[in-house]
Amino acid sequence: MNRIARCGVAIAALALGFGCKRGNVAPPAPPAVAAASGSAPAPVPVGGPTPHPDAVVDALAGAGLSPEGFATLNPVPYGAAVCKEGRVQTIDTLVCEFRDPEAAARGETALLDQWGREGGHTGVALRSKLTLLGVFDRARHDPNGKVINKVIDTFKKL
C-alpha cells in the first residue's frame, strides 16, 4: 500500500477513535489472565476497565437518549461474555462485553457480516477496550444520523 493510501486509512481510523503507528503495525494484544477461581479467563482490560453493558445503557440514559427495552441476550451472540440489546430513540442498539481482544474483533466482524446480510440503512460498530457497541438503523428512523452520532459520542466518553 502506498503512503498516500496508508495515510487515508490512518485518517479514517483516527476518525473512528483508533490510533495509527508508522508502518501500519498494530500493538500486540495482552495475554489472557486466568480468573481467581481458575474456571474461566477473566476479561483483560486494555489500559483500564472496559465499560460494562449496564454502564453503557446507564450513560445513554444519563445523556437523555431514552434507552428502552434493554435486556440480556441468552444465548449470548458473537462469542461475547454478555450482551444487552434494546433501542435508543427507535434505533436498534447492542452492547456486548468480551473476554479478550481477539474475541471482540471476531464479534465485531460477525456483527458487521450479519448487518451486511440484513441490508439495513445505517450501522455503526465501535469498540472500546473489550466492549462493542452496535447501532443499526434498520427502518431508516435516523436518516441524518443525529441519534446514532449522539449514541457514539456518549459511548466514547466512557
What distinguishing features does this structure have?
globular, disordered N terminus, 24% strand, 158 residues, Gyrase A, domain 2, 33% helix, two-stranded antiparallel ribbon, 4 helices, five-stranded antiparallel sheet, alpha+beta
What do you see in this structure?
- By secondary structure, the protein is α+β, with helices and mostly antiparallel strands.
- It has two domains: 27 residues, no CATH class; 108 residues, Gyrase A, domain 2, CATH 3.30.1360.
- The protein contains four helices and seven strands, in the order H-E-E-H-E-E-E-H-E-E-H.
- The strands form two sheets. A five-stranded antiparallel beta sheet has the order 3-4-5-7-6, with helices on both faces. A two-stranded antiparallel ribbon has the order 1-2.
- The N terminus is likely disordered.
